[in-house]
Amino acid sequence: MERPDWAPEGIDLSKASVARAYDYWLGGSHNFAIDREFARQAIAAVPDLRLVARANREFLHRAVRFMIDMGIRQFLDIGSGIPTVGNVHEIAQKVVPDARVVYVDIDSVAVAHSQQILSGNKFATAIQEDLRRPEVILDHPATRALLDLDQPTGLLLASVVHAIPDEDDPYGILNRLRAALCPGSYLAISHVTTDSRPEELGEGARLSGRTTTPVTARTRAQVERFFDGLELIEPGVVWSPLWRPDSPEDVGDHPERMSFYVGVGRTV
Predict the structure, then answer these.
(1) Per its UniProt entry, which superkingdom is the organism in (predicted)?
(2) Which of 121, 118, 129, 109 is nearest to 23 (CA)?
């Protein structure tokens, strides 16, 4: 397969990326044939997958606006993916022009495209790293240059923790990240589950095994455990449309079909 001009050198075009498939589901163009093949197979298993992806993205928007309202002025967005409409820096800087954002993703296309659109924005940057290496993320020169972790921080983990299998100790990884945050910081998580649609989402999770970041779906109790020791913000861990919707119409008749548990917690 020929590498497009916008794709980074050395990228593996033989294996699908969930980040690039997510870009496809949201209507983006920074994806390859192998990603689109996987994305279409996933849609065959979960026909409303595009709606699921949008609902997850909309939760992220609401969580960022909430944190801004709570006084947060800097964000660490891990698993940020390929930039699309309504990125964290756009939402935050619309209200607070000097709000600072560090994007982190394992996918080189996501990082390269992020760096391109952030050119000239001195308050936002993107780095390529792995959530499983929290100390490397926290000690990265770009992170240290933009974020002051002695000040409250918004840690955003949207649709990424489920990419960490149990054997890699996701709870331990999050504890190491949380330990770096000062009191008054916030943690937002969205996490896929098979609780409401075990057959459809189970097949989707199985298909993800063909990608660079296979998915581990978790139950509500398992997702709630990521917030242990934090002040869990109302309404707690809920289906993505139910977390502080902008209007009742946004919830829909079956919020459980969005198949993501989401929540926000505050460090104390």
Answers:
(1) Bacteria
(2) 109
